[in-house]
Structure formats: structure tokens, C-alpha cells
Amino acid sequence: MSTIHEQPGRVWVRPLCWTAVMLDGFDLVVLGSITPILLSGKVFGYTPSTAAAVATAGLVGMMLGALAIGTVTDLIGRRRAMLVAVATFSFFTLLCAFAPSAEVLGLLRLLAGIGLGGCLPTAITLVTEYSRAGRNGGATTLIMTGYHVGAMLTALLGILVIPSLGWRAMFVIGAAPAVVLLPLMWWHLPESPVFKQGAGLDPVKSLLRPGFRRPTIAFWVTTFMGLLLVYGLNTWLPQIMREAGYPLGTALSLLLVLNLGAICGLLCAGRIADRVAIRPVTVAWFAGGAITLALLSVRLPGPLLYVVVLLAGCFVFAAQVLVYAYIGRVYSAENRATGLGWAAGVGRLGAITGPIVGGALLTAGIAFPWGFYVFAVVAALGAIAIGAVERSSVGAPADRRTADRVGSPEALGAPGSTE
């Protein structure tokens, strides 16, 4: 059987997946950039509760998309699933620009969320299966820098575009790149070399069989905590900082710094995990997130505030991506996308909880400092949960279950993955 380096089209996998994840990140963070405008202008009669409901609708869609498309990916293939996911979220994102009411905007966010939810697990699955065994941490975190580049672009464009063109233009900008990306994916994105259609495995039931049950539950709990942090912060950080007395420009710039920190964290976390061990590095990253978020509950002087927000982004966002990389090592080719999709899907309950908690704290007028206290506790719980995955889980069930030859140590001449 050919090795991963001989597969046609492999050079396109990372750039195309990175670009799709970048658009995913842009689209997911766009609500955080326009929410202060909708609230201050009372657009559609917007209130913090309305904003939380619209954000929640999108996250419910993402949960459904992760569960459905993640599972379907193991049945129809990674390439087809990626095309469907990108086309879906781009089309409904474009329609958001023409929403006549908060209710319609929420419905369109729900539908766009289905595509968004399926994009991430499929992209990570493809990248994992084109990486050396036990060395997917750096590849996964590199791909996920695309998410935060997209988020940074959202923050920058929010500052530059909204005052002149209005908030609706943000959705048009977020959807437009699909006009180029989809044809490129159609012509150049290869199928995974280890995907076998009709392999006979029930991918959902396999997640809870002996050998997978404990890590599966631990991953679900950890991803709940991690996504609560990711979406809670990206949705509400600008408004929480407004509540703390900072001007809108500063609040939006802190969202930019948060995602800049995420990119810095991603670039180093994956490499460290590949060289040391993924489990303790993931625990350490969640713990670092807890400490930095607790520090944000104090009103810090300007330069120090930016440093702490940068570090918070470094730890919080990279911690969640390390969980995805960890999942990619535990499951086999037959149920890897399902494992990623269900972890992300169950974790979306945390993503839904984050905006709801933020909205409730804002409505009560106590978002600062209590929001950061809550987020710090959540990060600490994430560290505890990921620590519950057994050291022996890394690679063991997957290696026993399947001959994942293209990415296996035997095919590539690489040592096996161990803690």
C-alpha cells in the first residue's frame, strides 16, 4: 500500500482545510463583533437576551451539524462532507445579511451552524489521516490557527467596515470567499487514503465499547468545558469589557488580541505535545487558562491587560484544540470523524451554555468581574476532566481495532504513539 507521501493531492489538504477553518472562524466570531452595534442601536429591538438567543440558535445548529456530518463523514467520505459543510454555512451566512428580524436572523444562524458544525471535525480528520502516527498535534493546531486568523479578521473588519458599511456587510464578506474555495476543493481536495466506504462498523456505537468508553466520556466533558470558554469569550468579551468601562474600540481590540494569543498558543502547543506527551500538555494548558482568566477579574492597567488577554487566548483556545488532536490519536480510521464529531457535538452544549451564562450575567449587571470567575472555574474543570483519560488510551484502541496503514507506524517507519 502506498505511503501518505505518495497520495495524489496531499499537498492541497492542509491549505484547503486551513482556509475552510478560517472561514469557519470568521463566521463564528462575527456575532461577537456586531452584537455591541445591535445592542446600542436597538436593532430588531435587540437586548442581551435577544443576542443570547440568536447566538444559541447558531450553536444548536453547530451541535446538530457536528453530530450528523461528523458521523456521515465516516460513511460517505471526508471530501464530500467538507464540500457539503462549506457550501451550507457559506450560503446561509450570505442570507444573514438580508435578515429582516431577529427571529429570521436566528433561524439563518441555526441553518448556517449545521455546516459550521460539520466543517471542523471533517477538516481535523483529514489532516490527522495525512499526518504521521502520533504526530498530529502540530498539524491539528496549525490547521486551527485558521480559525483564529478568521476571528482576527472579523475583529479588524468590525472596526473598519461596520462604521462605514454597516453590520450587514460583515455577513457578505464572510460568505464571499466560498465562491473561490468550493471550486478549489472540488478539483483538488483528495479523499482520505484510509477511508473505506461501507467498512461495516457502526461508528456511533463504537464510541462506547470497551476500550473507548472512558476516554469518550472524558473527551465529551472536557470539550463541554473547552467550548464553553471558546464561545463564551468570543461572544461576550467585547461587551464584558464595555461593562468594565472600556470604550468600544478597546473592547474590540481585546477580542483581536485574544485571538492573536490563540494563534501563538496553537503554534507552540501542538509541537510541545508531539515532543513531550499530549495528555500532560493539555492539562497544563487548561490550568494556564484558569489562572489567566482569574487575573482578568481584576481591572488591570492598559499594557498588562493586553498581556493577560494575550496569554488567556494562548492557553484557552489551544487547550481545546489539543483535545481534538488527542481524540484523533485515540480513535481509528473507521470512527475517527464520528469521535471528533460527537465530542464537538456534545461539547456544543458547553458552547451554548457560554453565551447563555454571559447573557445572564450581563442582564444582571455583574458580568464584570463574575464572568471571569466563572470562566476560570470552567477551565480548571477542563484540566481535571482531560486528566481522566488513561495514559494507555493514546493509540491503543485504534491500533487494535483497525489496520490504519497509511498513517500507521509500520507504513511510515515512525515509532508508535505513546504517552
Automatic annotation (TrEMBL):
Signal peptide: none annotated. One of its GO terms (cellular component) is plasma membrane. It comes from Kribbella caucasensis. It is found in: Cell membrane. Residues 396-419 are annotated as: Disordered. Its main location: membrane. GO terms for molecular function: carboxylic acid transmembrane transporter activity. The chain crosses the membrane at residues 12-39, 51-69, 81-100, 106-127, 139-162, 168-187, 217-237, 249-269, 276-298, 304-327, 339-364, 370-389. Residues 13-394 form the Major facilitator superfamily (MFS) profile domain. Keywords: Membrane, Transmembrane, Transmembrane helix. The keyword Nucleus does not apply. It is a multi-pass membrane protein. Pfam families: MFS_1. This is Putative MFS family arabinose efflux permease.
